[in-house]
């Protein structure tokens, strides 16, 4: 099991460029999440998905889009990158059937710098 | 809504010192409580969890007890090592299945 994988590990974008952060999990988890982590600010939820074809906004969705066409993949799209989107992005997944006690599994993160 | 409050860091200790990181929460119902650890340059990983009142979660020498009467889930370790240096996140998950995280507490352990 590779768990949750994310690509790329690091990226520099110019203001106004777009990119897609990739996330894949091989644990057959229904729930997937995207977070951003700013220094000293903990994790903020961007978007989440409870299954293929179903996504919903989290706390900070502006400037981002997601899709979930398969159980395994949950890409995050940045349109018109802005310096405020400089952050570390984490993808996570969890089982849904076990209830609230289910653990989240995190990927290694993508560090994004917008200049 | 749900919320988690952690003590601010950094917490700086010498090796073999006793560690406590405080965590209190606000939630409706009976949430599950978690501690996650983030080592430098890595993603978060589960350290321990407790799913009901008075449960004690434990792993790698760390312990935390689910105290409903004080709405707390404090993390403790009797003797820290340099390798425990990391950021520790307290989290809860209730009926919505969307977890709520604290802001994280950085631990620095000196030899």
Explain what you see:
By secondary structure, chain A is mostly beta strands. Chain A has no helices and 11 strands. Chain A has strands at residues 4-7, 10-13, 19-25, 31-37, 43-51, 54-57, 64-66, 76-78, 87-94, 105-106, 110-114. Chain B contains no helices and 12 strands. The model of chain B has no long low-confidence stretch (mean pLDDT 94). Helix content of chain B is 0%, strand content 50%. With 111 residues, chain B is mainly β. Chains A and B meet through strand 5, strand 9 and strand 10 of A and strand 5 and strand 6 of B.
Topology of this structure?
The complex is a heterodimer of chains A (115) and B (111).
Chain A: E1 4-7, E2 10-13, E3 19-25, E4 31-37, E5 43-51, E6 54-57, E7 64-66, E8 76-78, E9 87-94, E10 105-106, E11 110-114
Parallel strand pairs in A: 2-11
Antiparallel strand pairs in A: 1-3, 3-8, 4-5, 4-9, 5-6, 7-8, 9-10, 9-11
Chain B: E1 3-6, E2 11-14, E3 19-21, E4 23-26, E5 32-38, E6 44-50, E7 56-59, E8 62-65, E9 75-77, E10 86-93, E11 100-101, E12 105-110
Parallel strand pairs in B: 2-12
Antiparallel strand pairs in B: 1-4, 3-9, 5-6, 5-10, 7-8, 8-9, 10-11, 10-12
Characterize this entry briefly.
The complex is a heterodimer of chains A (115) and B (111). Chain A has strands at 4-7, 10-13, 19-25, 31-37, 43-51, 54-57, 64-66, 76-78, 87-94, 105-106, 110-114.
In terms of DSSP E residues, the strand content of chain B is over 45%
Radius of gyration of chain A: 13 Å
Radius of gyration of chain B: 13 Å
Please give the number of β-strands of chain A. 11
Structural class of chain A: mainly beta
Strand content of chain A: over 45%
- Low-pLDDT runs of 5+ residues of chain B are none
């Amino acid at each position: 099991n590779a768990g949750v994988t994310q690509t790329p590990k690091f990226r520099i974008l110019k203001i106004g460029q777009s990119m897609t952060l990739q996330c894949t999990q091989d644990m057959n988890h229904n729930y997937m999440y995207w977070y951003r982590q700013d220094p000293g600010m903990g994790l903020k939820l961007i978007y989440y998905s409870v299954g293929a074809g179903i996504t919903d906004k989290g706390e900070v969705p502006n400037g981002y889009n997601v899709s979930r066409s398969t159980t395994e993949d949950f890409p995050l799209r940045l349109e018109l990158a802005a310096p405020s989107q400089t952050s570390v992005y984490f993808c996570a997944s969890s089982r849904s059937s076990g209830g609230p006690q289910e653990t989240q599994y995190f990927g290694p993160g993508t560090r994004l710098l917008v200049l | 809504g749900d919320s988690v409050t952690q003590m601010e860091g950094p917490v700086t200790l010498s090796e073999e010192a006793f560690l406590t990181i405080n965590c209190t929460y606000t939630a409706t119902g009976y949430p599950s409580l978690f501690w996650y650890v983030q080592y430098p340059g890595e993603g978060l990983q589960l350290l321990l969890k407790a799913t009901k009142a008075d449960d004690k979660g434990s792993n790698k020498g760390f312990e935390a007890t689910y105290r409903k009467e004080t709405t707390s889930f404090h993390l403790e370790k009797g003797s820290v090592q340099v390798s425990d240096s990391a950021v520790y996140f307290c989290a809860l998950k209730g009926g919505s299945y969307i977890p709520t995280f604290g802001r994280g507490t950085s631990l620095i352990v000196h030899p």
